[in-house]
């Protein structure tokens, strides 16, 4: 069993919101570019999966990990951690989001990918605070959106279900169907000046870059 005790998320955030939220971590990727399961890669001496869990677990009332149904490599590593199999294996992150939303016990759900080593708690907290009265809170930088670093309401279930039924697996096709609150670059950089929240690990080069950034101590938050 993975021990989280050696990696402790920052404890300075204590100005908690009153919005009950679930955390959904998408860990069903195939790691094809890396050639091995990237969630166990060590970043700064700590397992990538453990870093992600530790970064988000204090932001919600439950943590749900959505993984491939044939994946037996993700033990329960922390209290309140629920590991569930993707309802439709191999159909991409939109189905993973649907699986997590269907399983969650709260209206609002923070969704992140399991390969993001530099998640910023202050930014995530800010985004959760924007969730009431909208269906989706998602960062947008220019023309680029970050749907795997976003807050989804349960109201997204029905339109996502329709897209999946139609065979449409594009997350961006969801945006016109729901009420979206975009978080722009000016808002993001108030918390994460270098926008490293959206850095994810896919290749050996990504691992090297992440190690270098940690070694140079340039990570915000």
Question: What is the count of distinct domains?
Answer: 1
Rg computed from alpha carbons, rounded to a whole number of angstroms = 16 Å
Number of strands: 10
Give the CA-based shape.
globular
Q: pLDDT average, as an integer?
A: 82
Which class best fits the helix and strand makeup? Answer: alpha/beta
CATH architecture: Alpha-Beta Complex
Q: What proportion of the residues is helical, as a percent range?
A: 10-25%
CATH class label? Alpha Beta
Strand content: 15-25%
- The total of helices stands at 6
Reported by name, the CATH topology is: Spore Coat Polysaccharide Biosynthesis Protein SpsA, Chain A
**Distance separating the two termini:** 28 Å
Helix/strand order, N-terminal first: EEEHEEHEHEEEHEHH
How would you sum up the major sheet?
8 strands, mixed
Residue stretches low in confidence (pLDDT < 50, at least 5 long) are: 5-16
Find the CATH superfamily.
Spore Coat Polysaccharide Biosynthesis Protein SpsA, Chain A
């Amino acid at each position: 069993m993975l021990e989280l005790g050696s990696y402790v998320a920052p404890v300075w955030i204590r100005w908690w919101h009153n919005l009950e939220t679930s955390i959904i971590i998408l860990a069903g990727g195939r790691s094809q570019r890396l050639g091995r399961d990237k969630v166990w890669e060590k970043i700064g001496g700590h397992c990538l999966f453990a870093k992600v869990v530790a970064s988000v677990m204090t932001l919600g009332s439950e943590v749900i990990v959505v993984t491939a149904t044939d994946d037996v490599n993700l033990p329960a590593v922390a209290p309140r951690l629920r590991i569930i199999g993707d309802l439709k294996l191999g159909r991409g992150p939109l189905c993973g989001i649907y699986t997590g939303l269907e399983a969650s016990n709260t209206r609002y759900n923070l969704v992140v990918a399991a390969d993001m080593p530099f998640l910023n708690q202050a930014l995530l907290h800010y985004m959760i605070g924007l969730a009431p009265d909208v269906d989706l809170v998602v960062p947008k930088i220019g023309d680029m959106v970050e749907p795997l670093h976003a807050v989804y309401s349960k109201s997204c279930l029905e339109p996502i279900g329709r897209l999946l039924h139609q065979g449409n697996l594009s997350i961006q096709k969801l945006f016109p169907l729901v009420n979206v609150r975009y978080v722009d670059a000016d808002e993001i950089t108030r918390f994460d000046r270098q926008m490293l929240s959206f850095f994810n690990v896919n290749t050996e080069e990504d691992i090297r870059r992440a190690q270098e950034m940690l070694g140079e101590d340039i990570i915000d938050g």
